[in-house]
Design brief:
204 residues, two-stranded antiparallel ribbon, alpha+beta, single chain, 26% helix
Length: 204
């Protein structure tokens, strides 16, 4: 990765890509997530109430995280359940909110958005209202927004076509949010969005 202080940012590197219309994907974290399982005999994790997730449901979550289009028949084969039993379990997981949705994995290079960056933002005035997600949610190049602990208040994941587009985007973020920014540019992505639901809460 390449990290820089945006106060002294120079993105005129000579890179060039064709810029298409920007698709809006998500302004949140992953669409499919299993909530962490509480310690044995407890329904709370670090002070947060969490639902109990049994092993079979956790396996279903892991399978769907890896392939959201997996059929009920294939889920049944993988879990040893009947198709109707799997269907009922999936519907229950959806109603409980453990399955938040289903989505496609996009090749952003082929869609013309090869440049990914993480932008940390910090308010100029710590006393101003903490409404940065609302201020920034209309900026469609922002794919995800996380509230974080540390020096910065939020981290944004953005996708653009060129360094010039990133420079323009950073100016828009600073103006809309009245914030300072620090940017890390992704050079390559060995892996991302790996399914972890099946093993979550079950350390070796």
């Amino acid at each position: 990765m390449f990290r820089c202080d945006d106060n002294n940012l120079d993105l005129d590197t000579g890179w060039a890509w064709e810029q298409p219309a920007v698709p809006r994907l998500a302004f949140a974290a992953a669409t499919l997530r299993a909530r962490p399982q509480a310690d044995a005999g407890s329904s709370r994790v670090r002070g947060v109430s969490t639902p109990e997730v049994e092993a079979t449901d956790r396996k279903i979550l892991g399978l769907l995280a890896a392939d959201g289009r997996m059929s009920y028949t294939d889920l049944g084969r993988a879990t040893g359940l009947s198709t109707s039993a799997v269907h009922q379990r999936v519907k229950r997981l959806e109603s409980r909110g453990l399955i938040k949705g289903y989505g496609a994995t996009i090749d952003h290079v082929q869609t013309g958005l090869p440049l990914t960056a993480f932008v940390s933002i910090r308010p100029f005035d710590p006393a101003q209202p903490d409404d940065y997600p609302q201020r920034l949610e209309q900026i469609t190049e922002i794919e995800s927004c996380w509230s974080v602990a540390g020096e910065e208040s939020y981290i944004l994941k953005v996708r653009v076509a060129t360094p010039a587009d990133l420079e323009n985007l950073l100016a828009r973020i600073r103006h809309a949010g009245n914030v300072s920014t620090r940017t890390t540019i992704v050079l390559s992505t060995p892996f991302e969005s790996r399914p972890v639901a099946e093993s979550a809460g079950n350390p070796a």
